[in-house]
Design a protein that fits this description.
This protein is about 85% helix and about 0% strand. It contains two helices and no strands. The chain starts with a helix and ends with a helix. Helix 1 packs antiparallel against helix 2. By secondary structure, it is mainly alpha-helical.
Length: about 50
């Protein structure tokens, strides 16, 4: 089974996000950064 790069990136960022945020504000910033990374990965995958 081929793993989607988007899925792998999303899971990696989720793991990083849950270990890195200490406050509600920090959590919001982490969620925003994760969304941006997922969006960039999706755009790169679509451009291929």
């Amino acid at each position: 089974m081929k793993k989607s790069p988007l899925l792998i990136a999303g899971l990696g960022l989720l793991a990083f996000m849950t270990s890195a945020c200490n406050t509600v504000e920090g959590a919001g910033q982490d969620v925003e950064a994760t969304g941006e990374e997922i969006e960039e990965t999706a755009e790169e995958a679509g451009a291929s």
